[in-house]
Each structure stands twice: as structure tokens, then as C-alpha cells.
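#structure-requests
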Amino acid sequence: MDLSIIIVNWNSTEYLRACLRTITGQTSRLRYEIIVVDNASFDGCGELLVREHPEVVFLQSHQNLGFASANNLGAACARGEVLLFLNPDTEIRGNAIERLYEALTSLTDAGVLGCRLLSSNGSLQTSCVQALPTVWNQLLDAEVLRWWLPQARIWGTAALHDGGPLPFPVQAVSGACMMIRRSAFERVQGFSADYFMYGEDLDLCWKMRCTDLNNYYLHEAVVVHHGGGSSRQAPSALSTVMMRQSVARFLHISQGPFASRSYRVAMWLSATFRLGLLAAIFPLAILTYKLDWWQSVARKWWAIWRWAVGMAVEGMPDDPRQEPLTHLASRREGHH
């Protein structure tokens, strides 16, 4: 078996149907299997597979395992020499899977290989290539700076601007589409269960680099990722805090407790500055009828401020690894 394609579903049956249709319709030169893990959503995807794709291996989890553990469950059942972790809210364009497979198997030092991700409207998702988190790049991570300095090394996105037809070395790629040799995946014991949602893909890419393997981006392989597009709602305040919690956990694991604490301080400074700015422009928000926007942004940064100083954030458990957050578990629609 050349390839095992592992998809974690969480309330994504309609997306999953389109995803499977593009996989089977566009991939003909590889011997592959598809494994779908339902993360306790019981949304009818099992019945869909029996009816439309009986060849798919279906695993029903009776609890929401989170993105990492659910993908590890699928990988444990895989027979392929290469694994492709794919979100259910993706659609394959052309022979993207075959291009990825050919590129990965041609590289002796390959860790994780990612692709070019497009939103539903065809725009590029710049998150398909990333820098591994540091206190510095997280503190400076703002839309205005990314717009002003899009090719700055700190973002780790040079491949989006300089990448050609060959695989381009990068620090990390998006978890929406990740291809890896099974031997490399097993060497680092798969995705880390230290995360419930957010950060598992970055952690896997970091572990590849720790084993002297390089992560790559292939511009010529194109996948549409509906969940990452601008048409979707902005992240809630709680999910924004969960993202930062995962970054803090990643920094603690990869760089030590001082880096994690420094990151919290940096987020406190960032939130304090933004809340002060929001207070200053409050009258303008009323005059320009932007009060709904102002309240949404204020809630987000107030939640981040509370998290940074160690205060409770509504809806967030003390240890999100131990308590499934079903209202958030759609994370990249199947994760979650």
C-alpha cells in the first residue's frame, strides 16, 4: 500500500462527501486507502460511507478525542508507507495528492510536506506555511505588520513568494493537509496528545526538525480548504484564547518554562495596549456605527488579557486536554 489518507470528521458530513469525491476522482496512479475517524459527532458520516464509499475504513470514536489523538487512532490502523492527514473540509485540485507523494518519496530528508491551500473564493491561505512560534514573532504577529512586511523572515512564509515547482524547505505547514512517511511519524510517536486543539501540527513539524528531518512546501500541489477562508466567521474569543494556550504549551515543551512565561507577559502587554487603543476609539466607533465590531474585538482582547494574568476565561476548562469542548471541536471543521 503506497498511501493511507486519514480524515478526522466532526459534524462535517457534507464537506466530507465533497472531499472524498475529489480524492477518488483525482487520484488514480497510487495504491491508497482512506480512513475516516468520526470524533464522536455521530452526524451520519458512517451511514454516508456505507452508502456511497463502502471501500473507506470507518472508525467511530465514542468520545471527542481531539485532533491529535483521533489522527493517531487513524494512523494506528493505516497500512500505507506514507500517511496523508487531511481535513474533511478540503477538496483536492488536479493530481495534488500524486504530486505530494512523488515529491515526498523523492526527498530523503523529508519530514512533513505541505501544499498550497486556497480559500473557497480562490485566495491564498498564507497560513499554509508558517514559522514555528517564538515569543518575538508572536508578539509582533499583527495583520498590519504582515501586510506591511509580507516577506519578512520572521513570518516564515518565504516559500509563498519564492517557491517554484520544487519542494521548498519551511519551518512548518498547516495541519489541514500534511503528508509524512509512516516511519518518520512513528519515530516521534505521532501527534502529541499534549494538545487538544490548535498547535498539534506545529508540534509535529518541530519534532521532525528535532530528528534532523526537514519540512517542505510544494507550491504545485493545490488543495481548497473551506474552513480557513474569509467566508467563515471570525474565531470566537474563547477559541482565540485556546490558540494562545496551545502556543504557550508549545513554547514550554520546545523552549522551556521561561519562554512560556515570557509569552504570557508578551500577550499581556499586547492585550493591554490594544484595550487602551480600543478605549480611545470608542467614541469614533459609536459615531461610525462600528459598535458591533468594537465589542467583538474588545471581547477578544479582554479574554486574552484575563488568560495572560491567570484569570478564568468563561467556557475554558483548566486543562483543555482532559475535557472535550464540543462547541469548539469543529476547529478546522474535522478537528478539531
